[in-house]
Write a structure and sequence with these properties.
The protein is mainly alpha-helical. The protein contains six helices and two strands; from the N terminus they run ααααββαα. It has helices at 2-8, 14-30, 36-41, 49-61, 78-88, 100-127, and strands spanning 65-66, 75-76. 14% of the residues are buried.
Length: 150
């Protein structure tokens, strides 16, 4: 896993990491491409929209973001999501009042999500169709059914 993580981590500077983190968080919340003006207005950066556009362009050049069309904001790519999950979420400090059981449950949820992501990717590649998976409730110990729908 460490080898894969190193391939995804091109030593982004802290500013680029925070911009990527915020773009992904906002995109997950809205489902809309995120523009530099939106980022500038969120209040987390003391940068102009032009400076944020430059950081976003660098992230796009590295393959972490994509621009659906010329006048749109940016959206995360698969590589951006992977870096977010592996490096940015992992670097977020856990709260000190979080019980060890909760930490273990979080780790298990990530493993299930990774397994489901890999499964849907494989099914999509094999069938050349869209593959969608839903997560089982945390109390479920195993996956009971996999359906392939056209």
């Amino acid at each position: 896993m460490a080898q894969r993580h190193e391939q995804l981590d091109p030593d982004l500077d802290p500013r680029a990491r925070e911009v990527l983190r915020e773009i992904i968080a906002q995109y997950i919340g809205s489902g809309e491409p995120i523009g530099s003006r939106t980022l500038a207005k969120c209040g987390k950066f003391q940068l102009s929209p032009a400076s944020l556009r430059n950081v976003m362009a660098d992230l796009e050049d590295l393959g972490f973001l994509a621009q659906p069309h010329t006048s749109a904001g940016r959206i995360p790519t698969d590589r951006g999501y992977r870096f977010y999950a592996d490096a940015l979420l992992a670097s977020t400090p856990a709260s000190s009042d979080e019980a060890p059981e909760e930490v273990e449950l979080t780790r298990m949820r990530r493993e299930v999500e990774d397994a489901m992501r890999e499964t849907t990717h494989a099914l999509s590649q094999v069938t050349d169709l869209l593959a969608v998976a839903t997560a089982p409730p945390p109390s479920a110990a195993r996956i009971h059914r996999v359906e392939v729908l056209q």
